[in-house]
Amino acid sequence: MIWKLDRLGRSIQGLIELAADLSARKVDFRSL
């Protein structure tokens, strides 16, 4: 669980790449 997106990725591009990598590994990303 991640509280803030700024803790997950340093840049928008990095966040997009991480989301794509997680998706390829069948990991869902959800915002609450």
Descriptive labels:
single chain, 32 residues, mainly alpha, flat, DNA binding
General description of the model:
With 32 residues, this protein is mostly helical. 53% of the residues lie in helices and 0% in strands. It is built from 2 helices and no strands. The longest helix has 13 residues, at 12-24. It starts with a helix and ends in an 8-residue tail after the last helix. The mean pLDDT is 78. Pfam families: Resolvase.
Summarize the structure.
This protein is mainly alpha-helical. The protein has helices at 5-8, 12-24.
Topology diagram in text:
Blueprint lengths: L4 H4 L3 H13 L8
How many strand units? 0
Number of helices: 2
Q: Termini distance?
A: 10 Å
Strand content: under 5%
Give the helix proportion (percent range): 40-55%
Gross geometry: flat
Protein name: DNA invertase Pin-like site-specific DNA recombinase
GO molecular function, one term: DNA strand exchange activity
Organism: Sphingomonas aerophila
InterPro entries: Resolv_N (IPR006119)
